[in-house]
Specification:
- The structure holds two protein chains of two kinds.
- Chain A has five helices and twelve strands.
- In chain A, 26% of the residues lie in helices and 28% in strands.
- In chain A, strand 10 and strand 11 form a beta hairpin.
- By secondary structure, chain A is an alpha+beta fold.
- Chain A has a domain of 79 residues: Rod shape-determining protein MreC, domain 2 (Thrombin, subunit H).
- In chain A, the strands form two sheets. Chain A has a six-stranded antiparallel barrel. A six-stranded antiparallel beta barrel of chain A has the order 6-7-8-11-10-9.
- Chain B has one domain.
- Helix content of chain B is 71%, strand content 0%.
- The longest helix of chain B is centred in the C-terminal third of the chain and has 29 residues.
- Classes of the chains: A alpha+beta, B mainly alpha.
Chain lengths: 278, 171
C-alpha cells in the first residue's frame, strides 16, 4: 500500500497528464466516427452564434463569385419555366401528373464556417432540426456533392464533407455506370479519389463522375467531378482513380440539404434482405 | 493580482485569435498558423504544473469548441504544458530566471525566445498533425506540415508580441 502511494506521488504529474490526454484523444477519435455529443462542436448554440457573427464579416469576400453562381442557376431554372417555352404540340393537355412523385426535397442553407486544408474537414450550416435537417442527410451545391450531415442541433448542423478521409459516397462513371467509392487523400481540396473499381473495366480520362444514388442519400446523377488520372494499385486488381472535384469547396457558401421523402420505405424494404452472416 | 487579470484577458484573446482568425486562414499545403502555444509559453514560470496543465487543457478545449476539431488543440496544448518545465530547466540561463519574469521577446531577447519557442512549436505542431492524420503511411506529409507551419507560427507570435505587448525590460 505504501509503495502504491509512493508510486502515485512520484508519478502524479504524469497521471494527471495521462488522464486529461485520454479525455482529449477519446473525444477526438469518437467524434470522428460517431458524434456522441454536440457540446464540443460548432453546432452548439454559443459557438454557433459566434460562427454566425464571424460569417457576417467574412461572407462578403466571396460575394461576387457566389452571386454569379446563383445567377447562373436562376437562368437555368428560368429556361424551364412555362413562359420561356413554346408549346409545340397544341393537342396535349397535362393534368395532375400522377406518373412522377416527388422523392427528394431540398432545404436551402448557408455555410457559416468551413475549412479545406485539414485532414478531415467539416462545414457548419445555419439550419438544423427546426428546418428538418437530421443526421445522415446529403448536402449538395449547384455544382456538385458537398457531404453528409454529421451532427445537427436545433438551429445548426455540421456536414462531414467529401474532404474527409472516409466519406464513402457511392459514385459512378456517368456514361458506363462503372461504380466505386469516393474518398479523399488529404493532399488538395481540388482532387479526390475513387476506390474499389475493378481494373478489368475500362475507364477514360475526363469522363464525368456522378453520384449513384444507391443509398438514398443523394439522387442519382449529382455531379462529383472528372477523372484526372488512372493508375493501377500494386498487388490488387483495382484502379486507383484520381478526380478533379467539380465544386470549389474553399469558396462555397450556398448549399442544399437533401431530404429523401421515401427513405423510410427504402430502408424498410432493404431490411427484408436475408443477412447471410446469421 | 494584475497578473491574474492580464493572463485571463490573454486567455480569451488567444482563443479568439486562434479560432476565428488563424484557423480560418487557409494558406495551402496543409499549413496552419499556431499562436495558441504562445499563451501557454507566457504563463508565469512559478505556476504549479497541475494548474498549468488544467489551464492549458481548458484553453485548448475552448479552441476546439469553436473550430470543430473535437479535442486536437486540447491534446497538443496539454502536451506542451506537460513538457514546458523540462524544457525550461534545460534552457535556463546561467543565473536562473528572474523572479516574476515573463518570457517574452523583450525580457529574454529574440535569440532565447526563438530557440525555446521553436522547440515548443515543433512539439506542438508535430503532435497536432500526427493525431490529425494518424497514419504511418503519411508520416512524411506530417513532417512537411510541421516544418512548414513552424516558421510562420514563430513569425506570427513575434509580431503579436511586438504589436500588443508593452516593452517592460529595464534596459
Amino acid at each position: 500500500m505504501r509503495n502504491l502511494i509512493a508510486f502515485l506521488k512520484r508519478f502524479r504529474i504524469f497521471i494527471v497528464f495521462a488522464i486529461l490526454q485520454g479525455v482529449a484523444l477519446s473525444s477526438y477519435f469518437t467524434n470522428l466516427s460517431f458524434p456522441r455529443s454536440q457540446y464540443l462542436t460548432t453546432a452548439s448554440s454559443l459557438s454557433g452564434k459566434m460562427m454566425e457573427i464571424n460569417n457576417d464579416v467574412t461572407k462578403h469576400f466571396n460575394l461576387a463569385y457566389n452571386n454569379r453562381k446563383l445567377q447562373y442557376e436562376n437562368i437555368q431554372l428560368r429556361r424551364k419555366l412555362a413562359q420561356s417555352n413554346i408549346k409545340i404540340d397544341k393537342g396535349v393537355i397535362k393534368i395532375n401528373d400522377t406518373i412522377f412523385q416527388q422523392q427528394y426535397d431540398y432545404i436551402p442553407t448557408t455555410v457559416l464556417n468551413s475549412t479545406v486544408h485539414k485532414r478531415n474537414n467539416y462545414f457548419t450550416l445555419n439550419a438544423g432540426n427546426s428546418s428538418g435537417i437530421y443526421r445522415g442527410m446529403g448536402v449538395i451545391s449547384n455544382n456538385g456533392v458537398v457531404g453528409i450531415i454529421h451532427t445537427s442541433s436545433e438551429h445548426f448542423s455540421i456536414v462531414k464533407t467529401v474532404l474527409t478521409e472516409n466519406i464513402n459516397i457511392d459514385v459512378m462513371v456517368e456514361k458506363t455506370g462503372v461504380y466505386g467509392l469516393l474518398k479523399w487523400s488529404g493532399k488538395s481540396p481540388k482532387i479526390g479519389t475513387v476506390s474499389s473499381i475493378s481494373n478489368d473495366l475500362s475507364l477514360k480520362k475526363w469522363s464525368e463522375i456522378v453520384t449513384r444514388g444507391g443509398s438514398g442519400i443523394f439522387p442519382k446523377g449529382i455531379p462529383v467531378g472528372k477523372i484526372k488520372s488512372i493508375k493501377t494499385v500494386e498487388g490488387k486488381p483495382l484502379w486507383d482513380v484520381e478526380i478533379y472535384f467539380s465544386e470549389k469547396y474553399a469558396k462555397l457558401q450556398n448549399v442544399y440539404v437533401i431530404k429523401n421523402l421515401l427513405i423510410k420505405e427504402q430502408k424498410e424494404i432493404e431490411e427484408t434482405i436475408p443477412n447471410e452472416n446469421e | 493580482m494584475i497578473n491574474i487579470v492580464k493572463h485571463s484577458i490573454r486567455f480569451f484573446a488567444f482563443i479568439f485569435v486562434q479560432a476565428f482568425i488563424f484557423n480560418q486562414l487557409e494558406i495551402g499545403l496543409g499549413i496552419q498558423i499556431m499562436v495558441s502555444p504562445l499563451f501557454i509559453f507566457l504563463l508565469p514560470i512559478e505556476l504549479n504544473i497541475f494548474a498549468l496543465m488544467v489551464v492549458s487543457f481548458v484553453f485548448g478545449i475552448s479552441i476546439d469548441y469553436f473550430s470543430n476539431t473535437y479535442g486536437l488543440f486540447a491534446s497538443s496544448a496539454l502536451l506542451i504544458a506537460y513538457l514546458r518545465p523540462f524544457l525550461f530547466k534545460f534552457l535556463e540561463p546561467r543565473d536562473g530566471f528572474l523572479p516574476g519574469a515573463e518570457l517574452s521577446i523583450y525580457q529574454m531577447g529574440y535569440g532565447w525566445f526563438s530557440t525555446a519557442f521553436v522547440l515548443i512549436l515543433l512539439i506542438n505542431n508535430f503532435w497536432f498533425f500526427l493525431i490529425e492524420q494518424f497514419k504511418w503511411k503519411e508520416v512524411w506529409y506530417i513532417f512537411l506540415k510541421t516544418l512548414l507551419s513552424t516558421p510562420l507560427s514563430l513569425g506570427a507570435s513575434i509580431l503579436i508580441q511586438m504589436a500588443f505587448f508593452k516593452n517592460t525590460s529595464n534596459k
